[in-house]
Structures are given as structure tokens and as C-alpha cells.
């Protein structure tokens, strides 16, 4: 029998992900030791309430409420508490003591990444975070390592399982947002405060992480334009389907050239994706990250984006990597932010738009609307009109659905302002971006 060096592993948090990580560490102990080249001894699981019900049985003697004491003497610390504090302070404490840290916490990485990476570099430790984006899907390593020799141009990602699950249920089963969110929470997909999911904060944090990695530039969370799904109506979801699209909450990270300035833009918002695009086939709590790189072309990374067990897979992969690093010795590898590109505002982005208007059903209205688009340099690709049957009242209305060619955000915003003020437009019913 091989005698392995023993590494002490501390897990902080015993919720959906932490309880699964702790159990799998115990259950697969021998297999993991053989892969890592070191024994992985679970020295404890720090929780807030030792008597809380858990998804797995963790031996009582491993449970503690003293996270600070647990990290002392640990070689590898796994942070699965979530949120900013005390997660940030615990990660800094663990790194400061020379431990490698594994986290699934995109919120703390997106808001305090540079401070945490700097702390790791100071002591030659490594901060791993594969589970922080796309749950089980390998996407951090591919961007950090496999694509390190290429130039990423664009990333389109479905990176929040809860909202994808909700939009899918609204689209295919006619659920309301509230019904679908309750189910996503029951299944362990949602954040402790699900506002983070439905208002797009979670996806924005992931967009900041992906853009930073892809473009070798620190992209702060507050530079990510963010819109959630709470303003979306079922009618918009259904009318998108009728027009050959599906609505997804997308993270869009791009390297763009705005008036001769090369920079980076990151945004999160609902968008129409053509049914023919691979992202349209991502259902339930699954995630997918579609990467366009100069040499590699288009790549798609797909799989379970949320849920305790799948996320534990990514965390344990990082635990094995950290253990191998301990065995091999040498300092950790610093984050690559050398490109330091300027971060451009959403007004610099260009995309296509799907606009629904309720207009007066009168001669000349179409020409007036077309003129408003053209005055703002927005070119119309397609228009369709429906007139409801049996209208009563003096002024009949029609519904116009307009799809534009690529246009600047600023130009589209000005067009919408003019449309809203036009006497022939009764209402601007919906404005959604079209991606993919
Ligand atoms: N649930 C999922 O599908 C995924 C979660 N993540 C991330 O993984 C992390 C953990 O998420 P979940 O397990 O879902 O959260 P959770 O809310 O189920 O579990 C968090 C655990 O931390 C404990 N905790 C809170 N404060 C503590 C403290 N001061 N000391 C010790 N324990 C404390 C809580 O009691 C709870 O057991 C979060 O950062 C989350 O964003 C990432 C990918 C997927
Ligand atoms: N709440 C998140 C969990 C994974 O990061 C999600 O729904 O994607
Ligand atoms: Na991942």
C-alpha cells in the first residue's frame, strides 16, 4: 500500500454545496488520494448552526462553529459560505497562513478579486475557483490554461441556472416567475437571497470573472451593465418564440473597438437568441458558455450550472489540483491581467434589437416609424404587423414587431425616446436585444 503525505482540508459552509463536498471527500477518500498523490484528510466543516438539517450526513465530530480555528493548520481551505463577509476575511486569513483556497463564491471574487489574488501571490499560495462560474462546467481552466495562447474575442454565456430554469418554465410550461423561482429554490439552485439571481447580480459577477480571464484585464463588478428578468413578461417570452427566438439571460463579454479605442465590455441582460443557435437548446438549470476565439473559432462549454452535487464536482477538481501543487511544490501561478484594456460603457456596444410597438392603424404610420429609426442611424431588418380583430373605439391600433440590423446602444436608446414621444405610437411594448 502506498503511503501518502497527508494534507489537511477544512470546509467552510455546510449548505447545498458544502455538505456534498464534505461527504464526497469522505466517501472517495482513497480514490482522491491516488489522483492527488496525497491523502486528503477532512479536518472539519464550519457551519453557522450545527443542528440545521443537511442534504448529507456529516459526522457530528467534524462539525464546528469556529471557522477561524478550523483554518489554522489547514493545507487546503474550501470556502462555501457565500456572500462577502465573513467569506472575504476567512479567505484572506487562510491565504495569509499559506493555505491554498478553493471557493465557489463569485460574489466575493468579482468584488474583491484583486485583493484576494494579491494575498495569494504574496505567500506563493493559489486561489482556485472553477465552481464560481458555470457550476460543474470546466470553464475557468479552459480560459486560464487551454486558451492562454489564443485571443478571445467574445463570450456569450448562460451563467445563471436559476434564471435559465425560470425562463425555460415560463416558455415551455407557462409558469409565472414566482412559481418557477420557488421550485428553483427548493432544488438548491438559487442563492441564499434569490434577488441575486433574478436581478442579474449573480450573472454579472460571473461576467466580471469571465471577462477578466478572457481579456487579461481586471473587470470590476460595477463596470458590468446589469439587467435582470423581473421586468420580463410571459407575453414577451411567448411572442419571442412565435418570432423564432427564445429569451435567455445572457452574459456578453466582448473585446470591442469604439472609435479607435480597443477595450472590453461586459453586460448582463435578457436577450432573444435565435432557435437555431446552440444556446437556445440550453434548458433547465443548465449553463453554457459560448466562446469565440481568433484561432480556435467557436467553442461551447455546456453542463449543470447549479445544484449541490454538480458544483461539488468542480470544487473537488480544484481540491485535487491544490493537493497536486502541494506535492509538486513551488509557488502558485498569478492571475494574468497584463493587457489592462480600458473598460468601455454599454453605450459603446452594438447589437440587434427586437422592438414591439403598439401604433395607430392609419395610413403613413409605417413610413413615420421607419423615418424615426433612420434619423437615428438604426437600420431596420424586418417588420411585421398584426391588427387585432374586432376593435372598438375611434382609433384602431396595430402591433408592429421590428427587428433591426446591428446598431449602437446609444442610437437605439435615442430611437426609443423618439418613438415613445411620437403621436402615432400608443406604447413601446418591449425592447430586447438579439444576440447570437
Ligand atoms: N448552490 C449552487 O448551485 C451553487 C452555489 N455556488 C456558490 O457556492 C457557495 C455556497 O452556496 P450554497 O451551498 O448553495 O449556499 P447555502 O446557503 O446552501 O450554504 C451556505 C452555508 O454556509 C453557512 N454559513 C453562513 N455563514 C457562516 C459562517 N459565518 N460560518 C460558517 N458557516 C456559515 C450557512 O449556514 C450554510 O450552511 C456560494 O458562494 C454560492 O454562490 C456556486 C455554484 C453553484
Ligand atoms: N444561484 C446560482 C448558483 C450557481 O452559481 C445559479 O442559479 O446559477
Ligand atoms: Na465551472
From TrEMBL:
Cofactor section = a metal cation
Read off the Pfam families from this record. Answer: ACT, Homoserine_dh, NAD_binding_3
Q: Which GO terms describe its molecular function?
A: homoserine dehydrogenase activity
User: Which top EC class is given?
Assistant: oxidoreductase
**Which part of the chain is the ACT domain?**
354-433
Q: In which pathway does it act?
A: Amino-acid biosynthesis; L-methionine biosynthesis via de novo pathway; L-homoserine from L-aspartate: step 3/3; Amino-acid biosynthesis; L-threonine biosynthesis; L-threonine from L-aspartate: step 3/5
Q: Which domain of life is it from?
A: Bacteria
What's the EC number here? Answer: 1.1.1.3
Q: Which InterPro entries match?
A: ACT-like_dom_sf, ACT_dom, Asp/hSer_DH_NAD-bd, HDH, HDH_cat, HDH_CS, NAD(P)-bd_dom_sf
Query: What does the record give as the reaction this protein catalyses?
Result: L-homoserine + NADP(+) = L-aspartate 4-semialdehyde + NADPH + H(+); L-homoserine + NAD(+) = L-aspartate 4-semialdehyde + NADH + H(+)
The answer on whether this UniProt entry bears the keyword Lipoprotein reads: no
Which keywords accompany this UniProt record? Amino-acid biosynthesis, Methionine biosynthesis, NADP, Oxidoreductase, Sodium, Threonine biosynthesis
Q: Supply the CDD domains for this chain.
A: ACT_HSDH-Hom
Q: Which family does it belong to?
A: Belongs to the homoserine dehydrogenase family.
Q: What does this protein do?
A: Catalyzes the conversion of L-aspartate-beta-semialdehyde (L-Asa) to L-homoserine (L-Hse), the third step in the biosynthesis of threonine and methionine from aspartate.
- Name the record gives this protein: Homoserine dehydrogenase
Name the species this protein comes from: Antiquaquibacter oligotrophicus
